[in-house]
């Protein structure tokens, strides 16, 4: 089993095929989208492949140490150009192929017009410790 | 083996040990050890006086532990202090625990965790699950809190207002996992209100009951928000409402108004309206005026602007909003709502979408996105 992180971006990923902002969808389309995401997570819980999922607020701040006795420096909210993570889901699957297949399913969540968004999700494997050999 | 009985007795047994001079952390450990003994022995040989049994067992455990750790001299001092055997004192030791757990030296999150552990008798695992943190993290938080209050002596009553604030924090955490924190907060506030003569204890209990009464109607089966005006009032718990209103009226009659009572009064006026349209907004505005006077909180002023918008029309509401800082949570959402009521749908839609981006929780964000979508995709007239 290996864990993978599925990253959803507010910005920084290539544009989705069905790229319409959510406030231009109908309320029913929004409901269908949320239902799809919930069903997807519930299904992965049943197969034992779901680990965690969280959504992030759009505001982010870069912070840096600024020397002894000084408060950390912040560069304020992310400027428009920076990459922005909207949320993540962690899955624990048997193969890379399975991870790709699941990411593909998640990217097919319905959007405007009830059609799949085809958004780009980033798929990242977790680094793991080498297996411990025990007697 | 009656787990519920044990949970109920735990805080007062800890309280007895603390009052006899045991350090809080040591008292809690000793009581945990005594509970293990109880689980082992009670099914075969149930005691006639369970609390007395637990106090005796816990006090012995405490002495054993103290003996193991400190010098002979200290042990002898304590042994001298051991009270004569007999029925456990009827003094209310649980109350002392409330004050200890809400001690001002603790951060709010530590105070909440310690209260749930010591007064509520919840396990560390249950508290960790309710707060969605690993059990080890919660264990650390609790033991750090215990260290902080270790050595604090309780010879006089603490500040009821601080305890109430901690219980209010517990209530607002809602629920997840197998512990319903709102229900737990109500249980603990009920116990507290029965013990202290403080109108705000009654006020907080009334407020919790009135909010809790609406809980079933507040969300859709899949977790979506249902605004107050759209809630199915038939699903409100009328027994809880009448209990809350009764408690509130008794508290108000004592003429020592505080912010919890004023908030409960607002909740009671909502609960009282047979339909959203029949809500007595004029009286609600008056209660918000009281709240502004009592707290001068910007959030209260924001809620007041909503009430003004309902009582005197959206323009009056927008005028009240204009005096407030736009960075307040929900400011944008409220502005959007008032513009919609005023008929400026384009501005409302833009502001709903902006409010959705600023929302701090998922159901709220989804709700605001739907509001924007509803206005943006409506049939042109």
Automatic annotation (TrEMBL), chain A:
<dbReference type="InterPro" id="IPR005545">
    <property type="entry name" value="YCII"/>
</dbReference>
<dbReference type="InterPro" id="IPR011008">
    <property type="entry name" value="Dimeric_a/b-barrel"/>
</dbReference>
<feature type="domain" description="YCII-related">
    <location>
        <begin position="5"/>
        <end position="107"/>
    </location>
</feature>
<comment type="similarity">
    <text>Belongs to the YciI family.</text>
</comment>
<protein>
    <submittedName>
        <fullName>DGPF domain protein</fullName>
    </submittedName>
</protein>
<dbReference type="Pfam" id="PF03795">
    <property type="entry name" value="YCII"/>
</dbReference>
């Amino acid at each position: 089993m290996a864990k993978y992180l599925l990253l959803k971006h507010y910005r920084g990923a290539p544009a989705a095929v069905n790229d319409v902002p959510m406030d231009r969808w109908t309320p029913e389309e929004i409901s269908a989208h949320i239902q799809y995401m919930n069903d997807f997570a519930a299904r992965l819980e049943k197969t034992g492949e779901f680990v965690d999922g969280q959504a992030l607020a759009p505001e982010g701040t870069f912070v840096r140490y600024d020397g002894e006795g000084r408060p950390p420096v912040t560069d304020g909210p992310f400027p428009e150009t920076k990459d922005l993570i909207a949320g993540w889901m962690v899955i624990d699957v048997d193969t890379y192929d399975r991870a790709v297949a699941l990411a593909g399913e998640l990217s097919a969540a319905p959007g405007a017009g009830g059609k799949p968004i085809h958004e780009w999700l980033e798929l990242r494997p977790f680094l793991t410790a080498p297996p411990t050999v025990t007697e | 083996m009656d787990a519920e009985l044990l949970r109920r007795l735990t805080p007062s047994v800890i309280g007895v040990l603390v009052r006899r001079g045991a350090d809080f952390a040591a008292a809690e450990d000793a009581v945990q050890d005594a509970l293990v003994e109880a689980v082992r022995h009670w099914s075969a040989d149930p005691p006639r006086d369970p609390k007395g049994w637990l106090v005796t067992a816990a006090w012995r455990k405490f002495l054993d532990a103290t003996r193991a750790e400190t010098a002979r001299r200290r042990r002898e001092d304590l042994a001298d202090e051991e009270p004569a055997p007999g029925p456990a004192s009827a003094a209310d030791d649980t109350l002392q625990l409330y004050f200890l757990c809400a001690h001002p030296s603790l951060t709010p999150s530590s105070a909440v965790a310690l209260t749930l552990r010591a007064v509520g008798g919840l396990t560390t695992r249950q508290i960790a699950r309710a707060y969605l943190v690993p059990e080890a993290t919660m264990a650390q938080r609790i033991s750090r809190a215990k260290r902080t209050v270790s050595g604090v002596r309780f010879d006089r009553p603490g500040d009821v207002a601080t305890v109430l604030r901690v219980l209010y924090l517990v209530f607002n955490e809602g629920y997840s996992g197998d512990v319903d924190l709102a229900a737990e907060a109500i249980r603990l506030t009920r116990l507290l209100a029965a013990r202290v003569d403080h109108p705000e204890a009654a006020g907080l209990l009334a407020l919790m009951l009135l909010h809790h009464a609406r809980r079933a109607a507040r969300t859709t089966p899949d977790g979506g928000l249902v605004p107050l005006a759209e809630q199915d009032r038939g699903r409100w718990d009328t027994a809880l409402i009448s209990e809350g209103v009764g408690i509130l009226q008794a508290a108000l009659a004592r003429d020592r108004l505080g912010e919890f009572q004023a908030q409960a009064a607002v909740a009671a006026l909502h609960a009282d309206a047979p339909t959203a349209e029949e809500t007595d907004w004029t009286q609600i505005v008056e209660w918000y005026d009281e709240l502004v006077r009592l707290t001068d909180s910007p959030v209260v002023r924001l809620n007041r602007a909503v009430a003004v918008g309902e009582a005197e029309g959206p323009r009056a509401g927008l005028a009240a909003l204009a005096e407030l800082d736009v960075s307040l949570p929900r400011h944008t959402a409220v502005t959007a709502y008032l513009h919609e009521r005023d008929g400026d749908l384009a501005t409302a839609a833009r502001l709903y979408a902006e409010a959705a981006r600023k929302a701090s929780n998922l159901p709220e964000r989804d709700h605001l996105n739907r509001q924007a979508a509803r206005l943006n995709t409506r049939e042109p007239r």
